[in-house]
């Protein structure tokens, strides 16, 4: 059975790879981008499979109109992929108010509004799948990326909650957490704050030097084509996996971060219990865990 996918941010990166592979598999794709003409070559090769629309995901009104039009034109959409996003780099103090607002609007608010636009349609048709292209940056945090991490951690919290809300409607949710992949992230898709000399010898300055080519870049083990293939394969499963951690670096970073977080939590166990009211019942105390 041919499925239909709705994907944001299809002009490059994971969005482009997903679109190419899905069309090659004879699936239908509703592809949105700020510059849909970047898909002209695919439209020529797959005229009956590719539906296109111009979309800046930060324009909520247009986002809803495009979503409604896609369902009206295509009849059914099985999988929604929230992919549009970019990186904002620099110490928090180096970022402008406008840069902060734009980062949150693109990476976080747009993902939430995309879900809100699609959920009524998916409920009515009785099934669906959301795939959120998140980041291992939603499980770990590095200096000079505070706003990027804020959006990715926010996306994780939103979808973990929403997944439970949507399960009774046969709507699954998957958070994709890639590591560093060989896309244009950190290049054309990144934005830098205004440098302050006080940060030049710290992490913000070093990151800026890597992005400019003055220092060697971070290793990028992730193959975007393989990541796209793994995302598509995840949609074959009857039950949506809540998380897909993709890339050896992502796996290592997440493992270390979660172990360290658990160690800190365990070290504070006695303190946590000591702040309960004297008449509070704690199952964890009574059973000795």
Automatic annotation (TrEMBL):
Belongs to the short-chain dehydrogenases/reductases (SDR) family. The keyword Oxidoreductase applies. This is SDR family oxidoreductase. Keywords: Oxidoreductase. The keyword Disulfide bond does not apply. It comes from the Bacteria. It comes from Paramicrobacterium chengjingii. It holds the Pfam family adh_short.
